[in-house]
Amino acid sequence: MTPLTENPFTLGVASGDPLPDSVVLWTRLAPRPYEPGNGLPADGAVDVQWELSRDASFRQLERTGTVPAPAVDNHTVHLDPSGLEPGRDYWYRFRVGRWISPIGHTRTAPAADHAVTGARARLGLVSCMQYDEGYYTALAHLAREDLDAVFFVGDYIYENAINAQAGARNYTATPLPAFFDHWTWNLTDYRLRYALGKSDPDLQAAHAAHPWYVTWDDHEVENNYAGDISQHDDPVDVFRARRAAAYRAYWENMPLREAQRPSGPDMPLYRRFSYGRLARFDILDTRQYRSDQAYGDGWKYPGPESEDPDRTLTGEAQERWLVDGFRDSTALWNVVVQQVAFCRRKNTTADRSRLSMDAWDGYPASRERVLAGADGAGLANLVVLSGDVHVHYAMDIKEDFDDPDSRTLGVEVVGTSVSSGFDGEERPDDWNLMLAANPHMKYYDGRRGYVVLTLDETRLQADFRTLSGVVTPGAPVTTSARFVSEAGAPGFSPA
Ligand code: FE
Ligand code: CA
């Protein structure tokens, strides 16, 4: 190939899915990130040199090599070096010709038998990056946190049209190309939508700072889809083609292993990681295998349709895998990393209340089976992490949500959005009502941000990081609340 005359490292670097002896290292070559094909030849591959170092100045090189960035994978690299040291910091970078990428920092997971005593994990919880609803300022702050890893729980992109001004970002000096001003349907659309998001410097900083464990929600394909069923009931073959394009672009653009590579409209995304004996992470996919939302979706009264035990949020195979995993877990903290709100959320104090048919509330039999599985397994310290709703919540998972005196089976942390929903407000209109209607809801804040979770031998701490706004860049971050749940005695209380 003729030497590149333009910098191909316009979309940053990333690492993900750390294991004790490996971590995925990612980049995408795109001298022209807003053009189909990245401004590179349409076939073959570009050879990329890589370096992995034990220090930030690349003096103690652990490993070097060359990896292809194939055109068929839209010039992305998913390197999976083995034989690394557990629980160790590494730095990495890529090179093509005279062009060198930004430096990424990453960290392997602790060894599987790493003792709980003295162990600690600090984990970010992030979701929902609607590009045209605000700046990714939260991610600039996340990049500066001292973290072992980040969980991203869905809505990395949105499928809507984005105008030349990039909506709320109000790009007047350098408008976006007209290409983005239509909804995403095909592979080129989704690939370019990731290029747009990944051109954001705050997102690049957050990926370069920490390894991410990612999962998707709906907007990586289409709002509130369910399995093969699109929001507006498109013909199944049409929707499956859209899903295949979306899933392929997702895999290409995430720091995921070959094992997650999709085949047509199917992608094996749910997976499990150990973090020493301290924690286990079960990362779910609650979109690909779910039954259609009951009662036509939205907030509806529950009834025979939503309560049908044959309906499922996870699919049968994933549910069995999750519950079987509970049975052989020896971890102190069992963290279920997923998309949609798990605890019940009534929106009125009346006995009978509408519930969100898109969340676990619309699939109560699925929730009961998962909780029965955890309880039956004698699972230690269940923690559910969620996103989707663009607000912060701290909630106790109750055996019976109608009885505040029933057992608390675990805790749920819902992390707010990075930018979706514009600035938001500390107390949205339903703030009083939601807290009154749901005694297990200990905290609710409607602004943008992320959460930092700290797990150790004795407790889980959730620091809710919150921004004053995202429509103008540069807002500072504050810790708007801090909640703890003690190991062996689940239930949130303010710290
Ligand atoms: Fe969202
Ligand atoms: Ca969502």
In short:
This protein is an alpha+beta fold and 495 residues long. Helices cover 16% and strands 30% of the residues. The chain folds into 2 domains: 1-109, Immunoglobulin-like (Sandwich), CATH 2.60.40.380; 113-494, Purple Acid Phosphatase, chain A, domain 2 (4-Layer Sandwich).
Describe this structure in words.
By secondary structure, this protein is an alpha+beta fold. The chain has 2 domains: 1-109, Purple acid phosphatase-like, N-terminal (Immunoglobulin-like, Sandwich), CATH 2.60.40.380; 113-494, Purple Acid Phosphatase, chain A, domain 2. The protein has helices at 137-143, 187-198, 201-209, 236-253, 316-328, 364-376, 431-437, and strands at residues 13-19, 22-28, 45-53, 61-70, 76-79, 89-96, 99-100, 104-107, 120-126, 149-153, 212-215, 271-275, 279-283, 299-300, 333-337, 355-356, 382-386, 392-398, 408-414, 424-425, 441-447, 449-456, 459-467, 477-486, 489-494. It has an 8-stranded mixed beta sheet with strand order 12-13-15-17-19-18-21-20. A 7-stranded mixed beta sheet has the order 11-10-9-22-23-24-25, with helices on one face. The longest helix has 18 residues, at 236-253. The N and C termini lie far apart (59 Å). The mean pLDDT is 98. Calcium ion (CA) is lined by residues 154-155, 217-219, 388.
